[in-house]
Each structure stands twice: as structure tokens, then as C-alpha cells.
Amino acid sequence: MKIKKILVSQPQGAEARKYYEETAQKHNVQIDFKQFIRVESLTPKDFRAQRVSIIPDHTAVIFTSRHAIDHFFQLCQEMRVTIPETMKYFCITETVSLYIQKYVQYR
């Protein structure tokens, strides 16, 4: 089975464009970019309605983007939640992990 088209679930970035173009030309495939995930901020009222407790139930958070970090810490600030220093953060890329230093002191 020969692959003819590849769907990438993110917007096409300027840096990644050359790598995808090289792959497309090398293997003679078409690459389509569609953004499937959109990060939107929740209001504290909507978050409380979901009955999710941030602090006692969870000891770690996984961040997928810088926007997710902004929304998380903004929501915690609006809800007046104090995040313990023992909270662990996991990030999918190095740029996201460097961005988290804006909110958390590096340990």
C-alpha cells in the first residue's frame, strides 16, 4: 500500500515547512495541514461546574502549548488556588518547558 497523502494535525509552521517539503518531494506524497485542537480559556464558573479539583487530586500537569500554560495559571489565579511547590510539570517540547519558567521558579 503506497501512501499518497499525509494529514498533519497542526498549522504549518515556517521552520517545519522545509522539512515537510523535503519529505514530500523525496517520497512523492502530498502533505495537508489542518489544525484540530484549539486551546481556549475556561471561566472559573465553567471549571467548577466540571467538579475537577486541581490541588488535592493531582500532583502533575502535562502542558501541550504555551497557551495552555497561560490559561492554566490564569485560571488558578482567578480561582485563588495556591499551587504547591511539589507540583510537577511535564511539557511536550523544550520551548514549552522553557516558557513555564515565566510562572514557576526553576528547581
Could you list some keywords that capture this structure?
single chain, 107 residues, alpha/beta, two-stranded parallel sheet, 4 helices
**Unreliable segments of 5+ consecutive residues:** none
- From the N-terminal CA to the C-terminal CA, the straight-line distance is 49 Å
Q: What's the arrangement of strands in the largest beta sheet?
A: 1-2
Globally, the shape reads elongated
Mean pLDDT: 80
**How many helical elements?**
4
Counting helices, strands and paired strands, the structural category is alpha/beta
Instruction: Specify the helix fraction band.
Output: 25-40%
Please give the number of β-strands: 4
Radius of gyration: 19 Å
What is the percentage of strand-forming residues? 5-15%
**Main sheet: strands, sense, barrel:** 2 strands, parallel
Molecular structure report:
The protein has four helices and four strands; from the N terminus they run βαβαβαβα. With 107 residues, the protein is of the alpha/beta class. The protein has a two-stranded parallel ribbon. The chain has a two-stranded parallel ribbon with strand order 3-4. The chain is elongated. The model has no long low-confidence stretch (mean pLDDT 80).
Brief overview:
36% of the residues lie in helices and 15% in strands. It has 107 residues and is α/β, with parallel strands linked by helices. The longest helix is centred in the N-terminal third of the chain and has 14 residues, at 14-27.
